[in-house]
Design brief:
The structure holds 2 protein chains of 2 kinds. By secondary structure, chain A is mostly beta strands. Helix content of chain A is 0%, strand content 45%. In chain A, the strands form 2 sheets. In chain A, strands 2, 4, 5, 8, 9 and 10 form a 6-stranded mixed sheet that branches. In chain A, strands 1-3-7-6 form a 4-stranded antiparallel sheet, with no helix packed on it. The radius of gyration of chain A is 14 Å and the shape is globular. The model of chain A has no long low-confidence stretch (mean pLDDT 90). In chain B, 0% of the residues lie in helices and 41% in strands. A 5-stranded mixed sheet of chain B has the order 1-9-8-3-4, with no helix packed on it. The chains are: A mainly beta, B mainly beta. At the A-B interface, strand 4, strand 5, strand 8 and strand 9 of A face strand 4 of B.
Chain lengths: 116, 115
């Protein structure tokens, strides 16, 4: 399994519940990204991790959203007290982030979240 | 990110070349041009990237103008499976610890390949 792996692939939750979405990046990739995409909309940047640096959280839409990356590998995106507007596909991506070669990122297939 | 401008939509006949333009007039000297595409209901897929020379791989060719202010992605023989949204992105250049490296996706060009 060489690609970015995300779980669950589909999640239906009740409004007000908390959800956790998991991302396993490509082995050896130091950079990890979370995006979300609402139906018919473009990709919205959420958060970016690079090695041991502090994450760039500038895209998180509210304090109900948080993410962590343990051991520089697996990442979990947590949404607390979910709202219907949180319904979207949440996409994770990773990158080797090598200097001098640009920044090619590879996406997973996403976690489809539906809040009812 | 250097701002990019793409037409919102394009059509192409199956078997013909698809030429997708992108303007990036504020690009800096060390910033790459990246192309990704997103087929309906799938995660975005990397296509190609370049700095100043033209590039070609098994998927596409990338032509960058000499002044680097615009580029064209070429799919030489478009198929119905190439119908997708194509994104042209210029991420921050590699010039120190202030670079976050995040990719910001615009609205892209919706390419419709028709039989």
């Amino acid at each position: 399994g060489a690609g970015v792996s995300q779980s669950p692939s589909n999640k239906v939750t009740e409004k007000g519940k908390d959800v956790e979405l998991r991302c396993d990046p490509i082995s050896g990739h130091t950079a990890l990204y979370w995006y979300r995409q609402s139906l018919g909309q473009g990709l919205e940047f959420l958060i970016y991790f690079q090695g041991n640096s502090a994450p760039d959280k500038s895209g998180l839409p509210s304090d109900r959203f948080s993410a962590e990356r343990t051991g520089g590998s697996v990442s979990t995106l947590t949404i607390q007290r979910t709202q219907q507007e949180d319904s979207a596909v949440y996409l994770c991506a990773s990158s080797p982030w090598g200097r001098g070669g640009g920044n090619t990122i590879y996406f997973g297939e996403g976690s489809w979240l539906t809040v009812v | 990110d250097a701002k990019t401008t793409q037409p919102p939509s394009m059509d192409c006949a199956e078997g013909r070349a698809a030429n997708l333009p992108c303007n990036h007039s504020t690009i800096s000297g060390n910033e790459y041009v990246y192309w990704y595409r997103q087929i309906h209901s799938q995660g975005p897929q990397y296509i190609i990237h370049g700095l100043k020379n033209n590039e070609t791989n098994e998927m596409a060719s990338l032509i960058i103008t000499e002044d680097r202010k615009s580029s064209t992605l070429i799919l030489p023989h478009a198929t119905l499976r190439d119908t997708a949204v194509y994104y042209c992105i210029v991420p921050p250049g590699l010039h120190g610890s202030g670079n976050t490296g995040k990719l910001i996706f615009g609205q892209g060009t919706t390419l419709q390949v028709k039989p």
